[in-house]
Amino acid sequence: MPQPYRKSKLVRRSRVFWGSFSLWRPRLVFWCGALAIGVISVGFARLADMAQKTFASITTSSEWSFLLPLIITPLGFVLSAYIAATMFPNSQGSGIPQAIAARHLHDETDRSRLLSMRIAFGKIVLTVLGLFSGASIGREGPTVQVGASIMLAVARFGGMAQARGLILAGSAAGIAAAFNTPLAGIVFAIEEMSRTYESRSNGLVLTAVILSGLAALGLSGSYNYFGSTSVAPMHLADWSLVLICGVGGGGLGAAFSGFALYVSQRVRRWAQPQPLKRMLLLAGVCGFAIAVIGIGSGGTTFGTGYDQARGAVEGQALPLFFFLEKLLASFLSMISGIPGGIFAPSLAVGAGFGSTVGTLVGSSIALAAILGMAGYFAGVVQAPMTAFVIILEMTGDHQAVIPIMAVSMIGYVTSRLLSREPLYHGLSRVFIAAAIRARRAAEHKASAEEAAG
């Protein structure tokens, strides 16, 4: 065979190989990103659990240690708010509004102000610090911002142009890995993050959820977030829970989200003359108030509320006013400006409300807690399908599918009647406006420097 022929054949094979590699490179990078979300979510969960247990052990170690939150909680809040404002801007709050806002922004620089690996690192560290301080926050919302940040970094490294779809995929993967609820991750992405079904992104979302879920399963094993239960309505009192938990939970959720949007707006205006100083003052006051509530409740309102919610799902009645105490602690944690989510605390509030209703009605505490979670959660986020699927996957209660669906829908309708604007989308507008103002300021500065030069 002539030498030139052999050489041209080798060149063609080389081109095929490298051409195929360039096609596969974005996919491999995307898969690695999805697996990373699962691994980081599990690590985040373990750090959060350690922080909660450490706070609980410190505040119960001696006779007078129950008063320590009066010092630890305000100082922790001030420190968290300071670090968030100075080192990790846009890491405050849940993280879901930032991910929603990033999907609406078209400029890459604008997106990077809300989603970046630096912010993801800060989000994890400061959420853990908040839980160590006794804040009534969760890690699930922050995991959404972390997952979206990882996927946006993947888009840059892998040369992928579908930034909006990748943010959606990262958010879904974060929810799926945080709760071990793959279906809820997909529904959350469609219903809450995008508010529409985007066929071009469905493959990305599904693949990301599968891979992050596999990584989480490999590290934590298969489990239901609240264990497994199989309660169902049996008597008239049980069926009355559907209406009470739907209307009552939806109304409470609407009050929380509506008041949170209103107060957040007022706080931003109040803080304008001296934003850092005033926000630190607010964080300290909120931290002290949360410490007082926690001491008054015997420590039950500190942290995510997971233990209390799981106990209610297993049939252990919670104190009658626990849901009000937890709701107030969660509200104060939210407006304080520290990083932390409301998913887990909202489930605890819902379980507490359901437990109280079940006790007063004389019905099953476990069933009432599950329905209370569905009604309140649907009222807060105004996403009934997400509420239904996430509650079903977390409890494994397939015997109460129809009641959970009905309560979720009733809670959503009640909330929409009382509060027209969904919480996360209302908060996302703040980040969109801030990103646009920052870009315009940077452009104005660049123009001024160019004119001066």
UniProtKB/TrEMBL annotation:
What GO cellular-component annotations does this UniProt entry give? chloride channel complex
* Compartments in which it is found: Membrane
**Membrane-spanning ranges:** 66-85, 166-190, 202-219, 239-264, 276-296, 327-353, 365-392, 398-419
InterPro entries given for it? Cl-channel_core, ClC, ClC-type_chloride_channel
Lipid bilayer topology: Multi-pass membrane protein
- SUPFAM superfamilies found in the cross-reference section: Clc chloride channel
UniProt xrefs under Pfam families: Voltage_CLC
- Key word Transport present: yes
* Native source species: Rhizobium grahamii
Q: What is this protein called?
A: Chloride channel protein
Instruction: Indicate the principal place this protein occupies in or around the cell.
Output: membrane
Alphabetized, the UniProt keywords read: Chloride, Chloride channel, Ion channel, Ion transport, Membrane, Transmembrane, Transmembrane helix, Transport
Highest taxon in the source lineage: Bacteria
Q: Name one GO molecular function term.
A: chloride channel activity
